[in-house]
Amino acid sequence: DAGITQSPRHKVTETGTPVTLRCHQTENHRYMYWYRQDPGHGLRLIHYSYGVKDTDKGEVSDGYSVSRSKTEDFLLTLESATSSQTSVYFCAIQADGRNRNEQFFGPGTRLTVL
Amino acid sequence: AQSVTQPDIHITVSEGASLELRCNYSYGATPYLFWYVQSPGQGLQLLLKYFSGDTLVQGIKGFEAEFKRSQSSFNLRKPSVHWSDAAEYFCAVGANNNDMRFGAGTRLTVKP
Questions:
Q1: A91: which DSSP letter?
Q2: pLDDT tens for residues B11-67?
Q3: Minimum Cα–Cα distance from A38: chain B residue
C-alpha cells in the first residue's frame, strides 16, 4: 500500500471555525491532490500541488486553501467552515502529473460542520 | 473539460452471476480511463486503467473493461461475482490537463 495518511480521520466542528486537514506521504511523490466526496457527485478535485509551494485550483476550490511547505505534507484549510463543506475528504498522490498514471488514495477524513 | 457518467446508481446481482457496470465519458481526444473500487470506510483502489493499445484491459480481482471509442464507453465486467465484490465503483477520465474527473459511482450489492 502507498504510504499515505490523513489526519484527523474524523472531525466535527461548528460553522465559522477554521479547520485544517493534513495529508502525509512517505513515497516522495511530486503530485498531491485534495478531493471531496459527496453522494451523487463522486470525487471532485479541490486543489492540487505539483511541488513544494506549487499549487493550483481544482473544480471546487472556493472556500478552501492549501499549502505545501514540504514534499511529504499537503494541508487543506477551510478558513471559515460552512455546512456545505460537510463531506469526506480524500488526499491522493501521484508520481508525476501525467494522468495516465495511477493516483493512490489515502483513507479519507470525514468532516461534519454543524 | 472531460466528464464521466455512470448511469446506474445501484446494482444488485446474485453471487456467481456476471456483472457489467456502465461508464460513458465525454472528451475530445483519446482519454485516460480508470476504474476504482471503494469499500466502506476506505479510500479508492485502482482496478484497471486504459490509455492506449489493446482496448480490452485486464485488472485485478478478475475484472476487465473494454474501451469502445465509437460509443464513448468504458464498461467494467466480471464473469462471476463474489460476495467480497460488494463495494462502490467509480469510473474516472483523465486528460493532459492534470484534471481527473470521476463519475458519481455505482454501488454494487451482491445477493447470496
A1: E
A2: 999 999 999 999 999 987 778 899 999 998 888 999 999 988 889 999 999 999 999
A3: B104
Choose among B34, B23, B62, B10: nearest CA to A104. B34
Q: Is the dihedral of CA B34, B103, A52, A88 positive or negative?
A: negative
Report pLDDT digits (tens) over B94-110: 876 667 889 999 999 99
Strands (E), chain B: 3-5, 10-14, 19-21, 24-26, 32-38, 44-50, 56-58, 64-68, 73-78, 87-94, 101-102, 106-111
Bridge partners of A40, per DSSP, are none
What span, in angstroms and rounded, lies between the C-alpha atoms of B88 and B98?
24
Nearest CA in chain B to A55: B98
Q: Which three cell numbers stand for residue A42?
A: 463522486
CB contact under 8 A, A100 and B95: no
Closest partner CB to A41 (pick from B1, B92, B104) = B104
Q: Are B2 and B98 contacting, i.e. CB atoms less than 8 angstroms apart?
A: no
Q: Is it the case that residue A1 has pLDDT exceeding 70?
A: no
Bridge-based pairing state of the strands B32-38 and B87-94: antiparallel
Is residue B106 a contact partner of residue B21, using CB atoms and an 8 Å limit?
Answer: yes
| Separation CA A70–CA A55 (nearest Å) | 12
* DSSP letter assigned to residue B112: -
User: What are the strands, taking DSSP E only, across chain A?
Assistant: 4-7, 10-13, 19-25, 31-38, 42-51, 54-57, 64-70, 73-78, 87-94, 104-105, 109-113
